[in-house]
Amino acid sequence: MQDLDLDSVTEAVIEQMATTPDPRLREIMEAAVRHLHAFARETNLTPDEWLKGIAFMTAVGQACTPYRQEFILLSDVIGLSRVVNIMHDAKGREAAGTETSLLGPFFREGAPKIPLGGTLANVSKGTEIMLYGQITDSEGKPVPHATMDVWQTNEDGAYDLQAYDPTTMDMRGQLQADAEGRFHFRTFRPLGYSIPMDGPVGELVRNQARHGFRPAHIHILVTAPGHRDLVTALYFADDKHVDSDTVFGVSQSLVVMPSTELPDAPVKGMPSIRYDLTMSRETAEGGGRVGSDPSKLVPGGRVGSDPSKLMPAG
Ligand SMILES: [Fe+2]
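^ thats the input. predicted complex w/ fe (ii) ion below
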């Protein structure tokens, strides 16, 4: 019979778990136990606080539905999703490759195909801007005919799934770059938006006196044979939350600002953003679509019947 103290209990747990046949499961659980025990020791966690933590995690689980993933939201607001994405990128993205962002829950297959120069706006109204640029590989060679999916909120800060019934697609589209990898399209300036604040994660964010907002952004997914899917987003420099994104998605290299002064703008005088996208080669590490579809976490789940309840973390 072993007498356990504050330190030896950690070793006893790890010793008992050493029978785990799957080496990766063994490694992950050992590290989890070490860090959780250290966390409890460091904070001098009391029984009341331990119970409060369990009640919180229970509430997070109970807030999950096929249309809402409160655990992903929790992971997002404590920066864990960003940590995992950065590590994933370090393995699969070439140094020159455009920085990535999470795909988020508002990507939809089958967005309307729009021609080069066309607009994402279907029913929304707003201040028109143009986004243009060139898609190349990391050596600067054009990626011809790459497919681009683009989606964003409207000027009220709502995605189509939130603003309309699921049959309406708006402020999203799919276009194909030309033989030189060049693209241009019209859209409206998006507005930033709040993460869902009506659940336990929202309550936590409020208790931390955080605002809960994401800065205005345009999501982009670029695919081309032989290249790693590029999932990124462009953030607007003048959004007041650009330096304090609640889910930590912003990188400096992805911050943009429309200008009417760009000499090569396809439409003179229209506020335009030039942003060139650099794809990485396909690798065995898999694609860049991180966190692609929260519904995959639900047995048999496929978001679709009521996407208006989707979790707007991305
Ligand atoms: Fe988003």
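The chain has two domains: 1-45, 70-295.
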